[in-house]
## 1
Amino acid sequence: EDKVVQSPLSLVVHEGDTVTLNCSYEVTNFRSLLWYKQEKKAPTFLFMLTSSGIEKKSGRLSSILDKKELFSILNITATQTGDSAVYLCAVGSYNTDKLIFGTGTRLQVFP
Amino acid sequence: EAGVAQSPRYKIIEKRQSVAFWCNPISGHATLYWYQQILGQGPKLLIQFQNNGVVDDSQLPKDRFSAERLKGVDSTLKIQPAKLEDSAVYLCASSPGQNLGPHFGNGTRLTVT
């Protein structure tokens, strides 16, 4: 059965800290891995990764995929209180054409 | 670009009642999804449309849930009759193609009492 596991489940840090969120997966015929940020409303798209070893970067956020070890990390440097959210990882498969979501990592950044 | 629109934002009903949610995807997006997100969990796909055809509805509880996407644009999701365990946020998302990351609407928070 396809699955996506995120860790840690929750994380509490102070502003300025750097955090690393993990996403491991077991999916038949992997197509892509996506990261979303979810505050109180809709998940907002952050990154889509399809190739190993190529870092995607947007401001203080970056992500990389390892297709051999079947995981991805999302890094946030110099965290701010506005980074507080649930970060969701989702994996797509060529077999099913649907995204399988992990349960998310809840990040809380305190001033 | 206007985002995915959903209504209502909130709905409270009693068990065994029926409820319907509406979604208007981003213009030109052929693929539309309905997800159910229970508190503390990640979104779970209920049904995926490509234009007005169903691509995947394997996790839709068909005895009580139904969805349609007439004319390949707007979509409605209905629950009849509702159960307590249906309390969740129902997210609609759309994508220009099946292989691209979907954009989500703000969701409808359903509480069944």
Note: Chain A touches chain B through 22 residues (CB under 8 Å).
## 2
Amino acid sequence: QVHLVESGGGVVQPGTSLRLSCAASGFYFSYYGMFWVRQAPGKGLEWVTLISYDGNNVYYGDFVGGRFTVSRDNSKNTVYLQMTSLTIEDTAIYYCGRGHAAARGYFFEHWGQGTLVTVSS
Amino acid sequence: AVRMTQSPSSLSTSAGGRVTVTCRASQSIDGYLAWYQKKPGKVPKLLIYAASTLQSGVPSRFSGSGSGTEFTLTISSLQAEDFATYYCQQYYDYPLTFGGGTKVEIE
């Protein structure tokens, strides 16, 4: 059974950095692309990033602007999201998940429970 | 970026009613569209992918249709557990994008 557990969320000040982790189990991690999607309070779902199964291809939402970096360690079944230059607008629940590769892109098949990131002074 | 526009943004209906949500893409995305259900405090749930393929375990009262730029999600007979916000998502091109959501509320 697919199991995804995010960690690393918390309260941080604007301009600082934070690294989120997502530990995966129950499937062959190295075979799957992994994503991060966020939801700000009272807002809709917003795709953040996706990393291919081998880490060779990464994609980001337009709002990221070079501030976030996704990576993965297939030996640890873990995907990471390094976030820098955080702003109040980055306050959200961050979900990681396993993507399902289609011919052109991915949809989001399995989701973790999410971790809350609050950016506040 | 492909812009996804959902309508309506919210709707009210009674249990047993039929619900139709529309999602329009700013350019053709063929059939690369998924639908998700999101309840407050819960994890998003994949309902439909490839515009009309029901995800395993999703009740058959949910259905999807469309291709190109216009898509619909239909719930044939709304149950109490279906009151939620529904999102479409295109995976035709990067950046991957969601619609703004449609909140289905009890009347």
Note: Chain B has a mean pLDDT of 97.
